[in-house]
Amino acid sequence: MIDLPGIHNFSEEEITMSYTELISEARNPATAEARLRHLATTQDLIRGMVATNPNCPLDLLETLAEDPEDGVRRLVAQNPRTPLDVQLLIVAEIGLISNSTDYA
Prior knowledge:
By secondary structure, this protein is mainly alpha-helical. It is built from seven helices and no strands. Helices cover 55% and strands 0% of the residues. Helix 6 (70-78) packs antiparallel against helix 7.
């Protein structure tokens, strides 16, 4: 792993990928669960896109529901797979969910 300011948990290979490629991979329903779990440990924009993935594992959605970034949490709440109790907790903690998000 490379430790550069603003780049969190990215491998050397990922450093050469564009954000567009990483975002596409994070949102792709065919992305492997292990890969989603790794991407969920990286930069907040990428974490937010993992939260939108329709095949994001429920336990990972629950973890992302506790993300320090409100934008990531809003995207978790908007994922139809997110359990209702988790959605309601997010709404109670950060307010109503709007149609626009910080990352979408």
